[in-house]
Each structure stands twice: as structure tokens, then as C-alpha cells.
């Protein structure tokens, strides 16, 4: 553990039960943060938290649940200094193939989770005079990737919240940024690779480097933005995308 980087600072990672969120949580732990593993699924949150026992489960698109997450974190680990809004995931399909339920679920899980967790965590960061909010957005907002309109509505809202919050808290020692990945190799990606290789080929064809990213490559950018040394970087959407979109 590289304790000097965070020296026990408290981090909340949402959607930390698996995939990119789990990789981010592990990376922040390695940098010396004490992490609260939050997820919709109890078993996944508990398993990810392991011996630390710092697990929380519930639907974070619900305001009261997000409030309970922050309260439990304060009680058990201390006030959150780092919040990673990673909970989410796409329901990807042509816009007109969505149902009202799938559209609502897309916005709920990707945008409302980030709004409520930020709303409840920011007062603690402001009181401490130091904080990091890091959202996991999506590079597809920049290139209008096929079948992504509903998902981009949610992630685009997250990108927009980033700039507004960054300005609002710029003099409170708090930075707010978004990391925007292109396709990332997760267990789900591996499944699709087997069941629908044509889809994977189509997604990868737009990535100049000719491959999807790794969970660790996303976690690495999050880890950088969480550190003291990134203190002058705020209001940015940083793509981790193998060159898919540039500038
Ligand atoms: N995998 C990719 O290719 C990719 C690309 C761009 C962006 N992203 C974004 O990165 C993030 C992580 O992606 P992933 O592929 O690891 O996803 P995943 O589906 O493997 O994991 C997401 C986690 O979030 C949790 N979650 C979902 N809704 C929640 C809610 N309402 N409350 C609490 N927890 C909730 C899930 O239980 C799950 O454990 C997501 O926001 C996703 O949209 C992923």
C-alpha cells in the first residue's frame, strides 16, 4: 500500500461490486485510501469489501439510500474525501426500441446515482476544504456511438454536471472531473465476445488502437485525478479511449 498518497483518506466507490468500479476501488486502496464499497447487490458489495467489511448495498438512484450510504461511511470510516460515481451501465439499443422503463432505468442508474451521491457527499468535502468527485462517464457522448442515444442522455448529463460543480466548488479545495472510457474489457464484454463477436468487432473498429481498454487503464486515470498532484485539474472530461475521439 502506497500510504503516502492518501494516508487513510476515505473514498466511496459506487458500483464497486464488479467490473471497472472494483478495479478503481482496489487501485484507491493501493494508494492508501480507505474505501467504502457501494453496490446495488449485497453479495457483490460484501465480497468486494472482503475483510474490511466496508460494504453498503442499495439502489443509489434513490435519494434516501444515497444519504444512508454517506451517513454509514461517516460513521464507520470517516467523512468521504473522494467520491467515485461509477455505478451505472448501458441499456444499449436503437432509441425507438427502448421502452419507457428501459429509458427511465438508464437515466436512474447512470445519472441520478451520481447526482444524489454528489449532493450528499459534497458538504463533507466542503467542510474539510478538500475533495475529489470523479465521475465515470462515456466517450460515446463525444462520437454519438450507435445505439447509445438513451445512455448518452444520462452520461451527457453527468458530463454537464461536472463543469457546473467544478466551478461551484473551485475555491473549496474540491475538484470535479469525469473519466470517459470507450469500450472496456469486463466480464460482460467477454460474454458478448463469445455470443456476438460481430458486435464487438463493430465497437472495436472505431478505436484507432484496435482494442478495447482495460479496467486498470480506467482505474489509473481515476487514481491520478484523486491525488493531491491533480489539484489544478478540474471540470474536465478525460477520455480513456485508444484515440477514438481526440481533443
Ligand atoms: N464497460 C464499458 O465498456 C464501459 C464503457 C464506458 C463507460 N462505462 C461505465 O463505467 C461504469 C462501470 O461499468 P462496468 O462495465 O464495470 O459495469 P458493470 O455493469 O459491470 O458494473 C456496474 C455496477 O454498478 C452497480 N449499479 C448499477 N446501478 C446501480 C444503482 N442504481 N445503485 C447502486 N449500484 C448500481 C451494479 O450492480 C454493478 O455492480 C458504468 O457507469 C458504465 O456505464 C463502461
What's the tally of helices?
10
Amino- and carboxy-terminal Cα gap: 34 Å
Reported CATH architecture: 3-Layer(aba) Sandwich
The CATH C-level name is: Alpha Beta
Name the helix and strand elements from N-terminus to C-terminus, one letter apiece: HEHEHEHEHEHHEEHHEHE
**Number of spatially distinct domains:** 1
Query: Structural class given helices, strands, pairing?
Result: alpha/beta
Which regions have little confidence, pLDDT < 50, spanning 5+ residues? none
Query: What fold name goes in the CATH topology slot?
Result: Rossmann fold
Question: Averaging pLDDT over every residue, what do you get?
Answer: 96
- Shape descriptor reads globular
EC number: 1.3.1.58
GO biological process, one term: monocarboxylic acid metabolic process
Protein name: 2,3-dihydroxy-2,3-dihydro-p-cumate dehydrogenase
Keywords: Oxidoreductase
Notes on the protein architecture:
- The structure is a single chain.
- This protein has 247 residues and is of the alpha/beta class.
- The chain has one domain (3-182, 214-239): NAD(P)-binding Rossmann-like Domain (Rossmann fold).
- It contains 10 helices and 9 strands.
- The strands form 2 sheets. The protein has a 7-stranded parallel sheet, sandwiched between helices. Strands 7-8 form a two-stranded parallel ribbon.
- α4 (63-76) packs parallel to α5 and α5 (100-128) runs parallel beside α7.
- It is globular and about 50 Å long.
- The mean pLDDT is 96.
- The structure holds nicotinamide-adenine-dinucleotide (NAD).
